[in-house]
What we know:
- The structure is a homodimer.
- Chain A is of the alpha/beta class.
- Helices cover about 45% and strands about 20% of the residues of chain A.
- The first copy, chain A, has a domain at about 10-35 and about 95-205: P-loop containing nucleotide triphosphate hydrolases (Rossmann fold).
- A five-stranded parallel β-sheet of chain A has the order 2-7-1-8-9, with helices on both faces. In chain A, strands 4-3-6-5 form a four-stranded mixed β-sheet.
- In chain A, helix 1 packs across helix 7 and helix 5 crosses helix 6 (about 145-160).
- The longest helix of chain A has 16 residues, at about 145-160.
- The mean pLDDT of chain A is about 90.
- Chains A and B meet through strand 8, helix 6, strand 9, helix 7 and helix 8 of A and strand 8, helix 6, strand 9, helix 7 and helix 8 of B.
Amino acid sequence: MIDEKGILFILSGPSGVGKGTVRRELFEKANDLKYSISMTTREKRAGETEGIDYFYKSKEEFETLIEEKQLLEYAQFVNNYYGTPRKYVEDTLADGHDVFLEIEVQGAMQVKENFPEGVFIFLFPPSLEELKNRIVSRGTESKELVLQRLREARKEIEMMDAYNYVVVNDHVDSAVSKIQSIIQSEHCKRDRIAKQYKQLLEDEMK
Amino acid sequence: MIDEKGILFILSGPSGVGKGTVRRELFEKANDLKYSISMTTREKRAGETEGIDYFYKSKEEFETLIEEKQLLEYAQFVNNYYGTPRKYVEDTLADGHDVFLEIEVQGAMQVKENFPEGVFIFLFPPSLEELKNRIVSRGTESKELVLQRLREARKEIEMMDAYNYVVVNDHVDSAVSKIQSIIQSEHCKRDRIAKQYKQLLEDEMK
């Protein structure tokens, strides 16, 4: 009906809170949401496709893009860069699609700086006890690492103030339903759409 | 889980837009929403109950409440006062229930002044043509009155800027679903709940 731009949604929260599970469930239900495609300098693996799994770049290309502020956020892991290309996000939004980004807290803070008009959703653990259980049950971390991750989680929770919404991940279904509501209601925000609606009526009166 | 206060939601929009229909559908689906009970000076009719249909007051009592700013909004029709008592709304919110108010644009503007922390939803006609059809199809208005109502509607649409959300009433089901999303997402707003969540974790760490 009206020519509406898409919205960038950023889901983040402490490690162990269940961001990935919530994102996968959400994407099974919300089929008009586009997942943000990352850019990387790591080698393309068999079966992967440019522009679907990742955008593949050389180290030099990636560093030029960093300098040109063409990444909403980036980080380095095991000698490779990973990041969120601004151009893909902006083009997809301009086409009228929402973009969804699931990301660690540090990355989300970078996105906040580079794209403050995004809608930031903090996934909150039902309790610290439960967060600890989830980290432990992965089975991949030593006792020392679990404690370190918990300390980090507590620091990350302090960053909640930079977010627009807080969703408790007590049940995946309930968290997904809340995120769907946030997406739908953000599209009803008066400051996003009032101008276009008024225009619509004015055109009708001509 | 946390001790959350209710939220006051105000649904308004030009006459003929279908506020009443949307509100009735919403209440069939959202059973934990409390409808705001009005106060009136008109006589109690057979079958009506104090505190369910209305709060009944004498003209003198009502005017005292107006002076004491105990009404979020009020108006006079056919020599009787009708209004929204602040106390009922505040007590219900304090009990943790959301309150829902469906009201004309003039009244909503009064509520905005007296209770700016409410969440204001503007119900928008799919088109002026459709709004005209709806007013005409009521069959109760003369041609002159229809035109007058349309002129009023256009003025009322200008007041959209005072609202938080705009929902198009193209299909009742879709409008109701959007309002349900607004209600759910408002409860996830960080500024409403972050403090309590942080407190929760701090209590756990003691």
